[in-house]
## 1
Amino acid sequence: MLPYIFIVLALGLRFASKPIAFTSVSAALLFFGARASRRNAWIAWVLCAATDVILTTVVYSYPLTWDQFVTWAWYAAALGLGMLLRNTNSPLRIGATSLLSSMIFFAVSNFAVWASYRTLYAATLQGLINCYLAAVPFFRHTLAADMVFTAIFFGLPLLLAGTAGDVLAPAAPEGARKRSTAR
């Protein structure tokens, strides 16, 4: 149930945190991929894509453009990265995966901005560099939010279960069958 709560919370925060880009979407997708049933990953993806459509067309009054598909592909990638964390509570692995997710989003989303908005950046290597440089201030907020919310989302269940000291024990994903030790 917690993966679903975190996704809804993350998407709600997107509506509230427009000025500073401090959201928990990446962390929620990683947690959902790691702890929810693989069969239900599409639910998180659809909710994120639907939120993008509402924010883009209704809240910001912009048209949907092809570069939005890059973000939607990243949602799937973040869920996939989360699935690599299914059997771990290792802070190092979780933190490294969160960092990787942030860096991938920065690289692909800003490449898409450069490729799709020719009025903002020249179609040259210098234009691409300028696009990435202009995005660095936003990346600081994104990276900070991703790391903070990843620590909260992955740490909270351990604290609630009273197992925060046992961070290296494998975590059972939602819906996983427990092996019987009785013979």
## 2
Amino acid sequence: MSNIVFTVKMKVKEEFTQIVDPFMRAMHKLTHEFDGGLVQYDLYKDKEDENRFYFIEEWDSEESLEKHKQKEHYKNFIEFIDDKLESIDKVLKKIDTSSLEKIES
């Protein structure tokens, strides 16, 4: 069974960036603390556009990813950001991070 790899690209509406940023960091931290099956789960912010965030994710199985989506921190995060995003895209690969700043939680 191969790992599940993807990047989630999020563009936050400018007026919400300051309140969404700590929630992005919390999501990153809580996922590392409470979810199994992580191979990689990194949070990045665009160096040139403070409204763009990226989660680069690699899970050991579809089952681990689905368990992650059932966790309260995931559900709360999705509900919180729902109306605060300008766009969200999922790319089925890791992206080049050379123009991004890695965020530690």
